[in-house]
Design brief:
507 residues; alpha/beta; Immunoglobulin-like; TIM Barrel; 2 domains; binds alpha-L-arabinofuranose
Length: 507
């Protein structure tokens, strides 16, 4: 067995890992909003003003920092005025992207802001550029954030909310190259500048505007948006303008868009393909950042990965438009690998939003449509085990002797790692992507004294192990005893297909 060494200089803190990298996404899609978050005030399930209490409690436990809403593709079909006022009078619409179902708009602006307040999460509202007007978006910002007796503030008050909300994050469209309008990069860059101009700061509310960005390796899209910053003057809050960030979307699957692979029952080869494709995020961040550096060498413009995660074939018997999939140990390792990449790029990646929070794609939480039983997925546990990285300073991890395996013509490094320090605590995250072979990692810890440690492990016997209402803890974190003193620091056992976090007490 090869022993991998991870050299970490504990006294050389790098960029701050924004807690917003641990952000989430909730779209009007399948059972994410309806049944997932929203059950209505009359539900027999414990709820606060119609919002499921068990879901809120579970997300608060992983320190959910922000929530993106209402889409996704849905955002560019959404007209916010349909979702305010008495629910029984709200107009209906067709959710043409997701299942072609009728949306009754019972979950709208007030319900979303209430949800964010219950979660203690910052709202990230995706504005409609695809089918909405500039005035409509401008009015929505005013409705949400203005304090005086302006027309939109008065309308909000008439609907029961006196004080404006704080809205830090504002999306300008979504996937404008696809469902958000099928635009060319040049067209969208002009629109983004225009919409950004009218998404105004009211009173003390300062918007961080995020322009809909590239699909995966479309560097031209990022380049075009960056070029459209003809100056990088700052707004009163010190943000570069006209928008402050561009986004990036990338999904992981083991097959193709027409047959993405199944969430469970996959082969070992599919495991490795998945890991290799998840690790591709690292390359994407490097390449998009390099393009951004040319226009913004001081890294004032953020990169926001506001959709990422696994996308599998839907579970048999479920609505194909609802994107309901099971979530296994493999999904957990896809998440850990993404976080390692985000941590390494903390000086450019300011936010990321896994798709999606409940019952859709790589969810944190699955709820049973019949019994309403709630299950925490293996992915949820990675968010929990990694929570200590939020707002900590990234530490470089230099890996030596990490084995590789050739997958789809490229070398897949079988160990992934990242680390951070926050005062007198450091957190090291380690993933063994090898489906079959146990390994160990020597943590060569330099620069500060380590006076104590504890470790947790997430693994299971089967690669596709997952949690169900009957076995909710089939994949759950446990204390990890496989950590020993070593001449260079610590030696950590990493069983095949496992994820380990080591917390270090420093002096
Ligand atoms: O997350 C599901 C969908 O994936 C989103 O609506 C869209 O932006 C992306 O294509």
């Amino acid at each position: 067995m090869t022993i991998t060494t991870a050299v970490i200089d504990l006294d050389l803190p790098g960029a701050t890992i924004s807690r917003h990298i641990y952000g989430h996404f909730a779209e009007h899609l399948g059972r994410c909003i309806y049944g997932g978050f929203w059950v209505g005030e009359d539900s027999p399930l414990p709820n606060v003003r119609g919002i499921r209490s068990d879901v809120v409690d579970a997300l608060k436990a992983i320190r959910i920092p922000n929530l993106r809403w209402p889409g996704g593709c849905f955002a560019d079909d959404y007209h916010w005025r349909d979702g305010i006022g008495p629910r029984e009078r709200r107009p209906r619409m067709v959710n043409s992207h997701w299942g072609d179902v009728v949306e009754d708009n019972s979950f709208g602006t007030h319900e979303f802001m209430d949800l964010c307040e219950l979660l203690g999460a910052d709202p990230y509202v995706s504005g409609n550029v695809g089918s909405g007007s500039v005035a409509e978006m401008s009015d929505w910002v005013e409705y949400l954030t203005r304090a005086d007796d302006s027309p939109m503030a008065a309308l909000r008050r008439a609907n029961g909310r006196d004080q404006p909300w704080r809205v830090p994050f504002w999306g300008l469209g979504n996937e404008a190259w696809g469902c958000g309008g099928n635009l060319r990069a040049e067209q969208f860059a002009s629109l983004a500048r225009q919409y950004a101009t009218y998404a105004r700061n009211h009173g003390g509310n300062s918007l961080y505007r995020i322009a809909a960005g590239a699909n995966a390796d479309d560097l031209h899209w990022t380049e075009t948006l960056m070029r459209s910053f003809n100056d990088l003057t700052s707004d009163p809050a010190g943000h570069a303008g006209p928008f402050q960030a561009v986004s990036l979307h990338y999904y992981t699957m083991s097959g193709s868009w027409s047959d993405k692979g199944d969430a469970t029952g996959f082969s070992t080869d599919q495991w490795y393909i998945t890991m290799a494709r998840a690790r591709h995020m690292e390359e994407l961040l490097t390449r998009h950042s390099t393009v951004m550096d040319r226009y913004d060498p001081h890294r004032k413009v953020g990169l926001v990965v506001d959709e990422w995660g696994t996308w599998w074939n839907v579970e048999k018997g479920t609505n194909p438009g609802f994107l309901y999939q099971q979530n296994t140990l493999r999904d957990a390792l896809v998440a850990s690998v993404h976080f390692d990449a985000f941590h390494r790029h903390a000086d450019r990646v300011v936010m990321a939003n896994i798709a999606q929070t409940v019952n859709v794609l790589q969810a944190m939480i699955l709820t049973d449509p019949d019994t309403n039983a709630l299950v925490l997925t293996p992915t949820y546990h990675v968010f929990q085990m990694n929570a200590g990285h939020q707002d900590a300073a990234a530490l470089a991890v230099h890996l030596r002797d990490a084995d590789t395996r050739t997958v789809e013509g490229d070398e897949l490094s079988l160990v992934s790692a990242s680390a951070s320090v926050n005062g007198d605590t450091a957190l090291v995250s380690l993933s063994n992507l090898d489906a079959e072979i146990d390994r160990s990692v020597v943590l060569d810890l330099r620069g500060r004294d380590v006076v104590g440690h504890s470790a947790r492990i997430l693994t299971a016997t089967a690669l596709d192990a997952h949690n169900t209402p009957e076995r909710p803890d089939a994949v759950a974190p446990a204390a990890h005893a496989g950590v020993r003193a070593h001449a260079r620091g610590l030696e950590v056992d990493l069983p095949a297909h496992s994820y380990v976090t080591v917390s270090l007490d420093l002096r």
